[in-house]
Design a protein that fits this description.
The chain has an 8-stranded parallel beta sheet. It has about 350 residues and is α/β, with parallel strands linked by helices. α2 packs across α3, α3 crosses α4 and α7 packs parallel to α8. The chain has 9 helices and 14 strands.
């Protein structure tokens, strides 16, 4: 009986092995093309590195974003307006602190954090992400200042502002590399100060789960006025010099309206481009027009961004009145027009 039992077991095992050897090999389903949206930056509550998981030949599914000119400023960030924006295809916004923390319309800092907390709740309710914060710029809020007293004041101010906007959970903290009117013949020293500031402040920004980007500035001609030079970062050469001094995890924001050649500017920095300010110009001044109204090669811009594996939003920065909440669908429509060069 025992021999019979063992024989049956051996027979069954040999049958199973035979079936496994003759079965057709399993075929993995074909891999789908990798798509990326900025929403992947957060997964299960964990913030991921920019562009993580991108495959070769991915096609970017960029979200559409806008600064607050479309809403008429901070007061226009109501739940109703944010929902209108979302339904029109706008996924994220950028909040500038210029005019919010300074100037005639400044909000007391003691009240501002509560205001930002309310904006975050309203944006979440509408399904809109507060993607980026544009840090303010003024004489006493300049990360490149060579005046040690002003430099120290700027450090204190920027850290206060960062604490306030931390409740928004932004992905990007954007800086101009300097104030827009500079004393002559001091650019090298200012770049060193800028690097000193960014190396220190970068740690603070990482603590809130964000990253720093530095925006290129306008300036085909160095002299702005009789006694002043233009801001740092006025062309590709100067931006390269600035970025060579920065930590590797400080990135570039391309303002197409500022660039003499927006396509060349994107190509110059490639995968270090982590943010955009999208608008058109005639090349003569800051215009902040809708794409198509000026001279920028928008199909070239889209192509260069794809080649750079740009994975942030298509963030418009338009002049006040160029688009309003009533025709905000134009932002998505114009992007769709140019997205296949």
């Amino acid at each position: 009986m025992r021999r019979l039992f063992l024989s049956v077991i051996i027979f069954l095992l040999s049958t199973v092995n035979s079936q496994q050897s003759t079965a057709a090999p399993s075929v993995s389903p074909p891999q789908e093309e990798t798509f990326y949206t900025p929403s992947l930056v957060e997964r299960a509550g964990e913030r991921l590195p920019y562009g993580e998981g991108l495959g070769v030949g991915f096609f970017p599914q960029w979200q559409i974003g806008t600064t607050l000119s479309v809403f008429g400023g901070l007061n226009g960030l109501t739940v109703e307006n944010l929902r209108k924006a979302k339904s029109a295809g706008v996924d994220c916004i950028e909040i500038s602190l210029t005019g919010v923390v300074n100037g005639k319309t400044a909000i007391p800092l003691s009240m501002l954090k509560e205001r930002m907390t309310m904006i975050k709740a309203q944006a979440d309710s509408a399904g809109v992400t507060v993607w980026s914060i544009h840090m303010p710029y003024e004489v006493d809020c300049d990360p490149s200042s060579t005046d040690e007293e002003l430099f120290h004041i700027a450090e204190i101010k920027y850290r206060k502002y960062l604490d306030i906007v931390s409740v928004l959970h932004p992905h990007i903290i954007l800086f101009h590399p300097s104030f827009y009117r500079l004393e002559p013949s001091n650019r090298e020293a200012r770049m060193q100060q800028l690097a000193r500031f960014m190396k220190s402040f970068n740690e603070d920004v990482h603590k809130i789960g964000a990253e720093i980007v530095i925006e290129n500035m306008r300036g085909p001609v160095l002299q702005r006025e009789q006694y002043y030079e233009r801001a740092l970062g006025r062309n590709i050469s100067e931006m390269k010099q600035i970025m060579s001094l920065m930590p590797e995890d400080v990135y570039v924001a391309i303002d197409t309206n500022h660039a003499t050649d927006a396509v060349a500017m994107i190509e110059a920095f490639g995968q270090r481009v982590h943010h955009l300010h999208i608008s058109d110009t005639d090349g003569k001044a800051d215009r902040h027009w809708l794409p198509g109204k000026g001279i920028i090669d928008w199909q070239g811009v889209i192509r260069a961004l794809k080649e750079a594996h740009y994975a942030g939003p298509f963030m418009y920065e338009l002049k006040t009145g160029e688009v309003t909440i009533d025709n905000i669908s134009l932002l998505r429509e114009i992007f769709e027009k140019y997205k296949h060069p």
